[in-house]
Design brief:
By secondary structure, the protein is mainly α. It has helices at residues 11-51, 58-63, 68-80, 84-97, 101-118, 121-134, 139-151, 155-167, 173-185, 195-205, 210-220, 232-238, 247-255, 270-280, and strands at residues 285-293, 299-300, 316-324. It is 59% helix and 6% strand.
């Protein structure tokens, strides 16, 4: 009987069958890629149509020989000059002209950033989600999406985004606690505890988080001892002496005339010493504050928890100078 089945044990037959199987799989994969590619193109086309704006220059730009770099440069120029509608149209045309996933990812981000700057937060979120479909591990897109959700007050979505960033290796524990403090502050009125209770609950989220302490002091007027350098602008406005056992706090309130230093006291902060001397001699002087992002080096007129330009968290450094307080 074995004689009749010898051909099935022939290695040549096995190789032929294996070759046929490989061929079938390869052909199937080829046609699947064609189908998937058409689906992606259709999806991208539908996406572009969804956001498209009618423009008299649209046909001209489509027909032009401008390459992707030129379109990208043109879009960034319009974006920086505040002409967001033109920037959006150019980025959409750039999307039509490219098939590269990497290039699409870049354009999606720029388009989302334009919508974010223009205040169209929901559109920005939708574009960023498309960018993340292209490459889920896009840290830059996740950071911007986090800010978009924060502006929309979708705190749960912000926390989910932070979880994604944590999975990608970023340290987000301080920021996560801060977002929870924001969420607590924005609870509906009928669910809110008393101010002191909310302040204490916020502080308990992370007892070593100076930004939460600043937030609590700023929003609830409840003081918690923290890094003086993160509080000086608030302390200057409040003019209520606190934590005088800390030399930095003590010197500020002495400079403001709210405390009396001993004659032998030597100021460590020369700017505060100058302010105190000027005030003691009836000169009109004040502290002027500016706020610098340690990440992108941009100067802002107001304190920020997230940089409005590079979107980094906890990068605000407070600078202060003594200036004349003479009224014009």
């Amino acid at each position: 009987m074995d004689f009749f089945f010898v051909e099935y044990r022939d290695p040549i037959v096995g190789l032929i069958i294996l070759t046929i199987l490989i061929f079938v799989v390869a052909v199937g994969h080829y046609f699947y890629r064609i189908y998937a590619s058409r689906g992606e193109e259709k999806g991208l086309g539908d996406f572009i149509k969804k956001f498209e704006i009618e423009s008299e220059h649209k046909a001209l730009l489509r027909a032009s020989s401008l390459n992707l770099n030129s379109l990208h440069f043109l879009g960034s120029v319009f974006s920086k000059s505040g002409e967001f509608e033109k920037a959006v149209q150019i980025y959409l045309i750039a999307l039509e002209k490219t098939k590269s996933k990497d290039e699409q990812e870049l354009i999606f981000y720029d388009l989302a950033e334009v919508y974010f700057k223009a205040g169209f937060l929901q559109k920005s979120a939708e574009v960023l989600l498309n960018a993340l479909k292209t490459r889920p591990r896009n840290i830059k897109a996740l950071k911007l999406l986090k800010l978009v959700y924060l502006r929309l007050r979708k705190f749960d979505e912000v926390l989910y985004t932070l979880d994604s960033l944590f999975e990608l290796g970023l340290e987000v524990s301080k920021e996560r606690a801060f977002i929870k403090a924001l969420k607590l502050q924005n609870l509906p009125q009928n669910l809110n505890q008393k101010i002191d209770q909310r302040a204490q609950l916020s502080l308990q989220l992370d007892e070593d988080n100076d930004l939460i302490k600043r937030f609590v002091f700023e929003q609830y007027k409840v003081s918690a001892y923290g890094d003086f350098k993160l509080f000086i602008d608030l302390l200057y406005k409040s003019k209520t002496p606190i934590f005088l056992e800390d030399e930095a706090y003590f010197e500020l309130f002495c400079a403001l005339g709210l405390c009396k230093p001993e004659k032998k006291h030597k100021f460590k902060d020369k700017k505060l010493q100058m302010l105190q001397i000027l005030k003691d001699n009836d000169f009109k002087a004040k502290l002027s504050f500016s706020f610098v992002c340690l990440s992108c080096k941009t100067t802002m007129p107001l304190f920020f928890y997230h940089c409005p330009l590079c979107y980094e968290f906890a990068q605000c450094k407070i600078l202060y100078e003594v200036r004349s307080d003479e009224e014009d």
